[in-house]
Amino acid sequence: MEQRCLDFSPEDVLVIGYNQSQLQALSRHVHEPSKPFAFDQLKEELRRALHEKSLQQLRWFAPDFTLFPQALFDANSIQSYYHLNFGELAAGNQVHYQTIPAWNCVIIYSVPNWLYQLHKTELAQAHFKHQVKEILEVAYERKASAEICISLFETHFVLSSIHERKLQNCMAHEYQQSADILYFLLANFQQLKPDPTTELRIHVCHPEVKVPDLTQLITQFKDLQQMPLHFEAFETYQHQRLCASLEGH
Questions:
Q1: Strand order across the 229-232 sheet
Q2: Can you say whether residue 37 is alpha, beta or left, with left for phi > 0 and alpha for psi between -120 and 50 degrees?
Q3: How far apart are CA 132 and CA 62, in angstroms?
Q4: Which of 128, 160, 166, 168 is the most buried (most CB within 10 A)?
Q5: What is the per-residue burial (b if ≥16 Cβ within 10 Å, else e) of 140-163?
């Protein structure tokens, strides 16, 4: 049976179809929760998309996430952790967390009430995961001693860096064009602690990402052009993570 994975964001839902880890189909459903009957409409669209298909995963991405050391983490304080980083929680959202044992940390994030309800009532068979958790788990499996990874979503990019097999940082930043990403990378270059073996990895995580000149711009700067560059287009990125997911089940 063909399998399905759902990628949710505040703006849309991607229905990704795959068979034996090969990408078979992709559809995008724009979701506007403020409109009347939006939730019922989304449920109906997903029912049609999942008809006679096997739903394996449900993944969520929004930029309001933070990492916290697992050794110091107190599940009763997640509201405080969130407020410290992002201020008041948006109306209609709730705070959740997931552990990332590979990096000895916890990811704390908000999720809309409608998505939580949808998962519990309609999609309970699917494993729920924040996409940044998956990004970091896959990075750990690569066993790289040093890398800078840029994961591109539609309106934000996640920059994570590893130095001497230790996770240095992982944060989301807004962008509108390739130059925004490049300028941020250059401005924070020394803090990222690159060395001659540090690999620069760029992953396109959403089909609406439009940065065709990013890799070309990178090669124009001496500090960056010396780094090994690995670029994954959307289809390649999806294939890699679906393979990793299937191996993990």
A1: 166-174, 156-163, 146-152, 199-204, 229-232
A2: left
A3: 9
A4: 160
A5: beeeeebbbbbbbbbbbbbbbbbb
CA distance 142 to 5: 23
Task: Round to whole Å and give the CA distance between 193 and 104.
Answer: 21
Alpha helices in the chain (DSSP H): 38-49, 78-86, 113-121, 131-142, 178-187, 214-218, 222-225, 234-248
CA atoms within 13 A on the CB side of 51: 5
Query: What residues pair up with 63 in beta bridges, in sequence order?
Result: none
How much is the pLDDT for 228? Answer: 92
Match 């078979």 to its residue by tokens: 24
Cα distance between residue 190 and residue 207, in whole Å: 31
Can you say whether the dihedral through the CA atoms of 230, 232, 236, 241 is positive or negative? positive
Distance CA 20, CA 1 (A): 10
- Per-residue pLDDT of 40-95, as tens digits, reads 888 899 999 888 888 889 999 999 999 999 999 999 999 999 999 999 999 999 99
Q: Are the C-beta atoms of residues 29 and 42 closer than 8 Å to each other?
A: yes
CA–CA distance, 143 with 65 (Å, rounded to integer): 24
Amino acid type, 230: H
Give me the phi and psi of 193, to 5 degrees please.
55, 50
- Over residues 172-203, the pLDDT tens digits come to 999 999 999 999 999 888 888 888 789 999 99
Spatial contact of 57 and 126, defined as CB atoms under 8 Å apart:
yes
